[in-house]
Amino acid sequence: MEIIIGKNAGFCFGVERAVNGAKEQVKKEKKIYCLGELVHNSQVIEALEKDGMVTIENLEEIQDESAKVMFRSHGVAKEIYEQAEKRKIFYEDLTCPKVLYLHKLAEKYTKDGFFVLLAGSKTHAENIGTISFCKKENCYQFEGIEELEDAMSAYAKSGLSKLVLLSQTTYSLAKFESLVEELKKRCPEIVVENTICASTRIRQEETKELARKVDKMIIIGGKNSSNTKKLYEVAKKECEKTYLVETEKELNREAFVNEDKVGIMAGASTPKESIQNIKKFLEKEGENS
Ligand code: SF4
Fold first, then answer.
1. Nearest to 93 by CA among 73, 65, 109, 78
2. Is the shortest distance between the CB of 225 and ligand 1 below 6 Å?
3. CA-to-CA distance for 79 and 75, rounded, in angstroms?
4. Can you give the pLDDT at residue 275?
5. Does the CB atom of residue 98 touch ligand 1 within 6 A?
6. Of 173, 192, 211, which residue sits at a domain end?
7. Domain boundary among 95, 125, 155
8. Structural domain range at position 208
9. Which SS3 state, helix, strand or coil, does residue 68 take?
């Protein structure tokens, strides 16, 4: 069996930074909280929780004012910073710098009188954070081209005359490009900020190329990881036999034979060990078949 692991599989710069930062804090602090999932990978979170990190859903859960809280890699809403400062809760901001940059853009364009369109999943933590830096009545969040007319009518209702498009850092590049094309037809003067992070773009491109070359493709990553789901969609278009798993336990042993060429790609929150475990699993199965 030939196994090809994508060069860009696994932790991106932002996740690596957050995980290393959290490990350091866990060692240093007696009690340390994390607001929301530090990164979208349950194996990584479980390991940190074993060492003492406590994941919470909101700041109200912190009763001990001397405790410290970490902010997840995908960022938190503006109100969270305000609440923490008001209650004088110490925080370590592990938000990826690329997400912080997106927050700044949202704030800046709002101040400059723009109506902000944000493309991305409405329920994703990153977008909830980004949209909080806009004025409620002067922004619209949408998931794709099917909501374009609603987005344009929200802009028309606002009475503003400047429009900007931002996107979730892990948004699909292909979807973003078709959105831009359609929006330019309706509003030629729209300002477009491609805020899809380079690491996401490169990973999606590599996944597409790899999936074209192999018989089977395995995408490894958390079930709630948006960038992993996108990788699955990209791969599935090119390679019918694409599997999305968190660990090797979810793979069917009989689905792989010696003659297979198998591609492996992993989401931005997937640790190296998970990739190696899948590789070992396949090598073992290859010998047996
Ligand atoms: S995918 Fe990009 S934006 Fe998201 S955490 Fe990684 S480096 Fe940051």
1. 73
2. no
3. 12
4. 96
5. yes
6. 192
7. 95
8. 2-10+198-288
9. strand
Q: Domain with 237 in it: what CATH number?
A: 3.40.1010.20
At 73, which CATH number?
A: 3.40.50.11270
The mean pLDDT value for 218-229 works out to 90
pLDDT at residue number 222: 87
Q: From 199, 243, 187, select the one nearest 218 (Cα to Cα).
A: 243
The residue behind tokens 């030629």 is 188
- Closest-CA residue, ligand 1 atom 7, reads 14
Same domain for 124 and 90? no
126 is a catalytic site residue: yes
Regarding whether 204 and 150 lie in a shared domain, the answer is no
Nearest CA to ligand 1 atom 5: 14
Pick from 8, 11, 15, 203 the residue to mutate for probing ligand 1's pocket: most ligand atoms within 8 Å of its CB. 15
Check residue 285 and give its pLDDT.
53
> Which CA distances in Å does 175 have to 74, 146, 201?
21, 11, 12
My answer on whether 231 and 279 are in the same domain is yes
Shared-domain flag, residues 44 and 106: no
Ligand 1 contact via 196 beta carbon (within 6 Å): no
Any atom of ligand 1 within 6 Å of the Cβ of 200: yes
Residues 104 and 52 grouped into a single domain:
no
Give the predicted TM-score (pTM) of the model. 0.85
Report how far residue 273's alpha carbon sits from residue 79's, in angstroms, rounded to the nearest whole number: 36
Q: Which residue has the tokens 């979807």?
A: 175
% of the chain with per-residue pLDDT over 90: 85
- Whether 287 has a pLDDT exceeding 80, the answer reads no
Q: Find the 95 Cα to ligand 1 centroid distance in Å.
A: 9
Same domain assignment for residues 171 and 218: no
In this model, does residue 85 exceed pLDDT 80? yes
- Radius of gyration, CA atoms only, the chain: 21
Contact in structure between 126 and 74 (CB atoms under 8 Å): yes
Count structural domains, the chain.
3
